Amino acid sequence: MSVCRAQSLTLSGIDALPVEVEVDVSAGLPGFSIVGLPDAAVQEARERVKVAISNSGYKFPTKKVIVNLAPAHLRKEGPAFDLPIALAVLAVSGAVPAESLKDAGIVGELSLDGGLRGVRGALCMAEGARREGLQRLVLPVSNANEAASIGGVKVYGIRTLREAVDFLCGGNEVVQAVAEESDRSESVETAEDFADVAGQRFARRALEVAASGGHNVLMSGPPGSGKTMLARRLPGILPPLTLDESIQVTKVHSAAGEGKGALIHARPFRAPHHTISTSGLAGGGSNPRPGEVSLAHHGVLFLDEFPEFNRATLEVLRQPLEDGHVTISRVAATLSYPARVTLVCSMNPCPCGYAGDKRRACRCSAGQIERYQGRISGPLLDRIDLFVDVPRLTRQELRGGEAAEPSSVIRERVAAARETQTLRQGVPNSTLAGARLREACALRGDSEALFGAAIDRMGLTGRSHDRVLRVARTIADLDGAGEIAVEHLAEALNYRRSSFLDR
Ligand SMILES: Nc1ncnc2c1ncn2[C@@H]1O[C@H](COP(=O)(O)OP(=O)(O)O)[C@@H](O)[C@H]1O
Ligand SMILES: [Mg+2]
Fold this sequence. Notes:
Number of helices: 21
Mean pLDDT: 89
Structural class: alpha/beta
Distance between the termini: 80 Å
Strand order of the largest sheet: 12-15-18-11-19
Bound molecules: adenosine-5'-diphosphate, magnesium ion
């Protein structure tokens, strides 16, 4: 036989698309060319495949070998085609039965000695293989657990090229990988509990509201008041991920090469350092991978010491905060990663940290404070729902005030409020827009009058107008109220005010 085919997959965003690997071996000047891969990658794949085949004890044909990766229009990146190329080459010479390649998806990077290295996106590949009707997925053993966790396709983890050949010849038994029993209780178990946070009733309430409706928060206060502590406890009160959300989250982590070998049930919490690059935050790069905003999908993106972040870097968050996904433009194509996050930011009110503090004098000049606060991106501020002051604790709060409520109790109220939203509109309040927003957040009588006055007095923009309504809806849901009442709206308006940003 002179032409043989193997089935493989490649990542596009967090989805794996099918790629057919076609190998033609013909008489003629000995050579090895690959078409359908970007230039640099072709060079590398060729060398690895050639050397790995001979180092595994097989013969690389001394003929004209042409590999075609189809479809041609699809941009194929990464070294995951090494294994299917090698196996299709070996199928031409009969070392592997061509039949055995028909129903198997194959991915894996070869090392020069014929060993297999793991690839990114194993779970996405398994999902793609299932969708394409492939019966089996053959991939490096280090990826097997992750790939098996989604189910619906038989997954075989392989160590070496030799082992792959023997397996396809039916010569050896490779144990089928099975899904590890993933622990759903992981979703609610976190070491960090709200019971540890003394005082800060206002901030605790704000985070409960944020969790209930998926709203964005900015906390401001002096150093050591508990901002970081509070933010880290937010994932612990979010409602558990649905199965569908779990799969989405796991796919993103898989595509980033951060798969854990099982489905992820815990809400992500990502706290990138303020020196992070634009592509680190948004994703991308050659051989693109998801960034922090996508790794936080369905969870919390925490920007600690917010004004320290590069403004230009933060601009990339504008689209995901509005649309729930990031688009990455590439030379050949654009791709998109999901990125629906609850944004939590924390900052000191001024460079020294004590502006507005009742006990300690602030050493900053008015100009310094202005410059400091000016570092915060306006468009991003416009996407914050809840502005929260986190003041220094009083002596009484520090020395054994009342016992604080544990996360488990807060979580129940949050879950009930989310349930209300799901029943009413299918999505969290933070994503309400247009007609659905007007319908869910209709105001009557007193609340309409209050809102009208507030719009004039506070100079709300169109965007912040909508944000107040969404937050008021969430507060009403926490209260079990069908309609937004004056007290709900008043509390929502209260979160627009911040002592330091008003000055
Ligand atoms: N409200 C609080 N309740 C209990 N401990 C607190 C509180 N605020 C601060 N702490 C203690 O101070 C440490 C620093 O708090 P942190 O959250 O890092 O402050 P910030 O981020 O506001 O500077 C915490 O690890 C905790 O031990
Ligand atoms: Mg901090």
